[in-house]
Amino acid sequence: MVLKYLLVLLSDSSVSFCYEPTHAKEKHDMISLENLKNTVVFALKNNLKVNFLLPDFTLDASYYACMEEIGHVKIVPFHSHPITDDAIYVIDSNRFPKSEELVNYTQQNFIVKLHKKHLKKWAAFLKILLPCSARINLVLMDLEHYDESDYTIYEKQLEKISNDLIHSPSQNTVPELNFLTDRMDLDQMNNCQAGLQHLTVAPNGKMYLCPAFYREDPSDDLGEIRTDIDIKNARLLELKYAPICRVCDAFHCKRCVYLNKKLTNEINTPSSQQCISAHIERDASRKLLEKLQKIHTQFKWDKSIPQLDYRDPFEIVKGNPQKISEINLTFQK
Amino acid sequence: MKVPAWVVVKKIVWALAKEIAVPVAVTVVWVPVKVPVLPLAKEAVEDPVKTPVKLLVKDSVPAVVRELAKAPVKPDAQVEHGKLNNYSSFQMIETKDVLIEKTNTWEEGKAKNITFIVTEDCQLQCKYCYLVGKNDLHKMDFETAKKSIDYLLQDRKYFTESSVILDFIGGEPFIEIDLIDQICDYFKIRAYETDHPSFNSYRFSFSTNGLLYNDPKVQKFITKNLSHLSIQITIDGTKEKHNLQRVYPSGKGSYDQVVKNIPLWISQFPNASTKVTISRDDLPYIKDSVLHLWQLGIKEVNINVVFEDVWETGDDAFFEEQLVALADEIITHKYYEQYSCSFFSTHIGFPYKENMNWCGAGKMLAIDHEGNFFPCNRFVNYSLQNREQLVIGNHTDGINQNKLRPFLTLDMFTQSTPECVACEVATGCAWCQGANYDYADSTTIFQRATYLCLMHKARVRANNYFWNKLEKKLQKTLRTLP
After folding, report:
1. What is the ipTM of this complex?
2. What is the pLDDT of residues A204-234, one digit of tens each?
3. Rounded CA separation A279/A256 (Å)
4. How far does the CA of residue B402 sit from the closest CA of chain A (Å)?
5. Nearest 10 degrees: CA dihedral of B326, B464, B88, B86?
6. CB-CB neighbors (< 8 A) of A234 in chain B
7. Closest to B402 (Cβ–Cβ): which among A264, A267, A324?
8. Is the pTM of this model over 0.80?
9. Which of residues 301-320 of A touch B (CB under 8 A)?
């Protein structure tokens, strides 16, 4: 494990920015100032970047002062935080902002937690958000409940978004979209990397694989803050030890270990929903890239995304494991 | 009236030939036509070089079975090194080895294996038993079994195989013989009514302690379903070895009560095999126990050492000594011509060439008394010491496909240490997915327990000794070394 950054949950009611459900705020326990200071010092000593996850209320000034001791990013609920350059705004589709609420936002980073009931509105939502964004990360909530009809809706939404982008007058300034443009630039896996590159410090001062593991079960901790964290079977976090993922080229996929654990019992095994949604995105990226290449013949394009005849790599691996020699070749250092 | 064994053999072969063309039928071909004579060790057998098995086949079994015999037995993925160079007299050994070494020949897409845990109760309290939570509370009722069968027969997406093995396990399954009879009848009726392919290709399989084998109800069931049955009575070897482990709650050994049922069992299933388990205290009795079982007329002895963390320094050397002594006996007395013992196999002790999982968990299905589905019965609470049971569905909601994905993509590489992957004598080294899950450092099936390492290496050395010595005696190459 080469730890690169920490996620720090300042409060039990800190914003949830990924697949875990946004829990009812039963508790408002804050991280103690002492634990926060320890965390900052630990990060400073180990060259770690820090992402602070903030709640929707204003903190005591001493907390802000402590956070300012280190370079950081603030992940904040959209409706509760002023516009700053060091913030990533989390939007819940239950309270998607109206365009007038976004008027002062330019080149900002957004995370959108899109609930399944709003899937049909995604293209419309995105149209509102695009002009003020530098990057948008989409998180498909309720993913475990997706079925064929939802996949069809998602495909259509991505097709609509691609068409909108192509016909947009400002297509040169299209923001990065994790679900559509990331795959065009990647030639290797670029996943969440929880437990490999980052760990989470929770309000109780203990470390976790990610915020979702803390929220799911606070007793599932990795102990006190230190560098030599002992993660049992940590190798299973690595791509090399993920039989489905290591043959896959949906490089932008989150490979969420929390969802893996929750849906398949195994951190190294993705659910069918994770794989299929990632492949729908991959195919939308492929089609968009092909269209752009046809339109903009003046550029030299060195990327292409091959068409696949499957959308779940499980189908390839099932009963047909990758050869040992192939695995060793792919992962030789 | 005493029916000669070969008549029963023919009857079974015919029944199988009509209904199921599986390697099980092929092995039947190799059963000698003579009624077993004790002790067979002293029986003069013609030189195998001069009497190839093909001749035996021609003389003793109907044409249709000869055709079946030609059907290739699918070699195990890791068999490659152990080809027998067409030395047909040893086909018997290899054929059986393949069946033994593979966890389940039927799993190769041919048959769905469905295990009904009809009871978690047993008359015995065997000391080495992995069922640590046996009890007399959890018994399946007929409604649960019916719902499970109904679900499985209608889910053609999950149940794609055209054959099925309904496996009945306990505790001791024959305690619940009335229920089992009901389940089997219900399966037949529903498979017919739903026009399920498995109606034409089903078997009922039992692992039993044998205590109730001669019970009239059990015998009635056997007679009724004879052509569709596989029954394995567990008898562990000599009286001393058997009674060391297989005891009643009082501590009294069960050998006498089991052994009296063996002749009846063999008369009904002449090709019967038994499964012997070796724990630490059993090591001194291995050789004598295998020979004893053969003398009882059980020609196929499947045997393995326990997966648990019980082995201590020096056990491997002792184990090896026993196996070498057994090898000498087999070769001296030509037992290899009629008997098999799974400790000796042509395809163990080579480096891995394939990346297959050892175990069939997940391809099969176990059902508990509540109608919960499991990858196998080793994932049910009564089998686990350290972990919660691992449910993959139930008869109402069906199979949770996401929970099956780890099992269906689990390979050797991902669960093994780099040392195991690179091991020079890796093939044949066994593991149990349920035991791995129970012992793993985290809640996963992807961590292979390696308690057996030294015992496996000892077995490999004894196995090499056996084959090299046999090759020398017969002046034939029986294995292709890498």
Report:
1. 0.95
2. 999 999 999 999 999 999 999 988 889 999 9
3. 15
4. 5
5. 180
6. none
7. A264
8. yes
9. 314, 317-319
